[in-house]
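It would be a great kindness if you could assist me with a short task in structural biology. Thank you for your consideration; the sequence and its C-alpha cells are set out here.
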Amino acid sequence: MKIKFLSILLLAIGASVFAQKNEIKDAEKAVKNGNFDEARSFLEDVQSEDLSSLNDRWQSRYYMAEADSYYEQSKDNADVEGLVKAADSYKKADELGNADAAPKKQELLELLLNSGIESQNNQDYRDAYKKMEAAYKLSPKDTIYLFAAAGNAFNAKDDDEAIRLHKELLDMGYRGDAMQYMAVEKESGEKQAFPDEKQRDMMVKTGQYTDPTDERDERKDGDLIKQLAVLYLNKGDKEKAIEAIEQAKEANPGDTDIDKAEAQVYLEMGNKEKFVEIIGDLVDKDPDNAGEYYRILGHSAVENEDFDKAEDYYKKAIEKDANEKEAYSGLANILLKKQEEIVAEMNELGMSKEDSEKYDKLQEERNKLLEDAIPYLEKAYEIDDQDLGTIRTLYNIHRQLQHEEEAAK
C-alpha cells in the first residue's frame, strides 16, 4: 500500500512539473507575440505551484520570461517599476546559468543608467534612485551606482530608503576614492576615463590616446556620514545622528572629513557652540585647510554679530590662503553692515542745523567705510571675475561714492 501511494504521489508531482513547463513555454510565446500581461499570467500559474520542483534550467527560463515581459513592456517609456522588476529577474536567471541573461543584463544596465541620469537631471530623484539601485544590483562591483542611488534618495526626501542605502554603503566600507585610469584622446584633446588600467594601456598603444595618468577620486564617505546624520535629524532622532558620527570616528580616527560632518550635524541641531569648537580644532588637525576653517569661523561670528572676532578670523583665513575669496568678501561685508547701521541713524535725523551737521559727519563715516570695503571686493573680483554678486556690490559702492568711471567700468 505504501509503495502504491508513493507511486501516485510521484505521478502527481510529475504531472505538476509537466504543467509548469508548458506554462513557461506559453509565457515565452506570449512575450514573443508582445502579450506581456498574458505572459505574466502564465508565470503566476507556475509560481502558484512549487517553483523549486523545477530544475535550474527551467527555473532560469521562468525568470528570463518574467524579465523579458517586464523589460519589453517598460523599456520605451523607461517605466521604473517594470525595469526594476526586470533587473531582479535577469539577475536570477543569470545566477541560474541562463546564457541569454548576461547580454540582456548589459542592455538593461545601460538603459537604467541613461534613464536614471535623465531623471536626476529632471529632478525626479525618486525615479532616479530606484533606477540607480537596480543598476547596482545588476553590477554590484560598480558601487558608484549605489552611491548615486543614496544621493538621489536623500534629495527625494525619502528618508527611510535613503537611510537604508546610506547604511549599506557605510557597512561595506565604501570610501568612493576609486582609482581612475585616464588618457588624453589625441583628436579631441579631451581626457577620458577607462574601466581599468589594462584597457587604458591598450588604447594608448593604438596611438589614439596619450598621456596616461592614474588619478584617485576624492573620498566620499564623509558626505555619506553627514547625510546619514541629517536623515536621522529629519526624523527627529538626534541620538542616532550623533551615534552615526561617533561610530564613524571610531572606525576612522583622525579623519577630518568625519570631523567636518560632525560639525555640520551640530550646526543642523542648532548647537553653534559645538560647531565652532569642532571647526576650531580642525585648524590644528588639518593645517593645510586652515584658511577654509578660519573663513567658516568668520561666517559664524558674523551671524552672532561679533564683527571684531569675525574680522580677526577672516584675516587669519587670508594669511593661510591668499585666494580665500569669501574671506575678502566677508571683510567687505562687515564694513557694509556697519555702514547700514549709520544709514539707519541718518534716516532718523530731522532738519535742524544740529541734525544737518550730524548728518554730514555720519555721511563722512559712511563713505569711509565704503572706501575701505573696495579693496577687499576688488581682491575677491580678482580671484573670481564671474561672481555677479561681487560685481554688483562694487558697482553700487562706486555709484554711491560718485566714482562714475569706476562704476562704468
